[in-house]
Predict the structure of alpha-glucosidase.
Amino acid sequence: MLIWKLYYTFLFIIGLTVGEIKNKGWWKNEVFYQVFPRSFMDSNGDGIGDLNGIISKLDHFVDSGITAIWMSPIYSSPMIDSGYDITNFRDVDQIFGTIHDFEKLVQKAKKLGIKIIMDFVPNHTSIKHKWFVKSVNNIGKYKDYYIWHKGRENNTKPPNNWIGVFGGPAWTYNKKRNLWYYHQFDYRQPDLNYRNYKVEIEMKKILHFWLRKGIDGFRIDAVPNLFENDDLLDEPLSNLKGYVDGEYRYHDHIYTTHDSRDYEIVARWRKILDEWANYHNQEEKIVMTEVYTLSFKAVMKYYNYGSHVPFNFDFIISINETLNARQYKNVITRWIANLPSDKSANWVTSNHDTGRSASVDPIRPNIRLILSLILPGISCVYYGDEIGMENNFNITWEQTQDPQACRTDPKTYQKVSRDFSRTPFQWDDTMNAGFSKARKTWLPVHKNYKILNLKNQKFEPESHFKLFKTLVALKKSSETLKSGSLITDTLNNDKVLVVSRQSSNESIVFIVNFSDDVSQNVNLNKYLPGAVRATVIISSVGSNIRWGTSIKVPDVELPPSIMLLLTSITVEST
Ligand SMILES: *[C@@H]1O[C@H](CO)[C@@H](O)[C@H](O)[C@H]1NC(C)=O
Ligand SMILES: *[C@@H]1O[C@H](CO)[C@@H](O)[C@H](O)[C@H]1NC(C)=O
Ligand SMILES: *[C@@H]1O[C@H](CO)[C@@H](O)[C@H](O)[C@H]1NC(C)=O
Ligand SMILES: *[C@@H]1O[C@H](CO)[C@@H](O)[C@H](O)[C@H]1NC(C)=O
Ligand SMILES: CC(=O)N[C@H]1CO[C@H](CO)[C@@H](O)[C@@H]1O
Ligand SMILES: CC(=O)N[C@H]1CO[C@H](CO)[C@@H](O)[C@@H]1O
Ligand SMILES: [Ca+2]
Ligand SMILES: [Ca+2]
């Protein structure tokens, strides 16, 4: 008896100490859905989305087949920069609810099989964060939590020529300390000083705080901005056309972005997550990194420094309505070509800093969404993409919220504002699109909501939402989409894009007519080898080609502008 008891105790101890990371690689073919909490669902009628709103809409994720969401910041914040200016990394802002609501959200989501990923904003805090207040007052260790420096010309000018991302000097003078502090973004978002190891320890404790709450990983904000050059050297001119002094792109940011230490700290954060999952026998925790750059080398390097998902922003930046089939093909193939061989590709449709995916090419509104769901690897979608929500440019100067726009003027704000892709989710055709019972919402609802809304699209036999749902389900079930080969081609003088996935017994092929006035005859023999008929999985919403029908192949007549996703099962001939 005693022997057995000891034996089980021994096994129990082994189980506790020799942990393991469970379900490794669960994210490799995942669809990640970005929730912008302010605009998702308002539960208490103040016109601003909140955590209880998200809880009330968890069934939408279940219905869509979404099993992982990442949320833009919900931390305490004066909301100068939509919550990217944080006063307390360990609490939820009252506009979103309480930490208790957050716990409820995680618990309910877990039950439904939905993973929750938090936005982690390590580069800076709010000017109102107690660390900064103490830093300004020269109190103890907080003195060096931020980047302070004496100015030039007897302290009357900023220490160097660095420009902030939102425009204007990246330095602001503080009377109390009689020094300048550095801020990569708004002057109300002072940068933390990562050369001070104490700051890194603070951040580790914050990661642990949220891991204890049961979250599944972090999306890390503004990674290339973490470290700056130690000697504060002036940055050279970019010589890019169309930019004037004071604008961010007027300079080449070699001393404020892509410091080698940015990579190393991401690797250390990944290690913290791995150790946690390992120690607690939990599923693998994920790291997603936000890195805007035109250099593939710089982005891909993050794969080797712990990032599971270095966001593929090339897929956003390089795609616009002027592209032809060949340019689309290039955007796809160059990511794949640069991808380290053992890593998962990812495709980002849009986010809160870019225009909405459906507005990029109004004639082919779902093209980027479809591609993200059929290409190998991970799809990252933005709230509203699933119903084809469009940019809302009807936001007045008075209604404008984005700090990047607020610092301009009523004539030019539209050029830089990011508000147009942050408007409330369009649930149905009732007041405020069903988003809120308030008289006024924080940003105006797009006026097309009476027609363009989720409720309508659930009723229509073929809609953006049905298309999304169909493809998410296919992505989860199809071995061909998970591990099949990829061919990307253009046909008919770059008028037609072909993206094809093949496994031993199935072919899936996506074809797009980039001509808006001429039908294209395409031969699909190469992509549907031996097939005489193929099934239409989906076609452009509103086209005359019905979903689920069977069409004759390999010769297909593709009407102008139309997109078609076909599948054929290869039947073994006996
Ligand atoms: C520099 O500034 C200080 C404080 O404002 C002032 O007392 C001093 O005269 C200035 N020196 C020069 C050289 O301008
Ligand atoms: C569209 O994208 C292409 C290729 O990425 C680029 O060369 C072109 O300047 C872009 N056009 C517009 C209007 O942004
Ligand atoms: C813009 O919004 C206002 C209400 O804020 C509305 O009256 C007007 O019709 C809208 N105009 C367009 C072009 O959408
Ligand atoms: C294709 O083959 C795989 C493995 O051989 C099998 O699991 C799958 O069900 C087949 N798919 C179809 C559509 O027949
Ligand atoms: C894409 C993204 O999340 N960008 C954010 C980067 O960080 C700045 C400052 O925190 C935000 O304003 C952006 O929205
Ligand atoms: C000229 C033409 O046929 N245009 C069609 C292009 O495709 C869209 C749908 O994707 C149709 O609405 C247009 O009628
Ligand atoms: Ca609310
Ligand atoms: Ca920084």
Remarks:
- The pocket of calcium ion (ligand 8) is lined by residues 123, 184, 191, 225-226, 228 (CB under 6 Å).
- The first strand starts at residue 31 and ends at 35.
- The chain is about 25% helix and 15% strand.
- The longest helix spans residues 260-279.
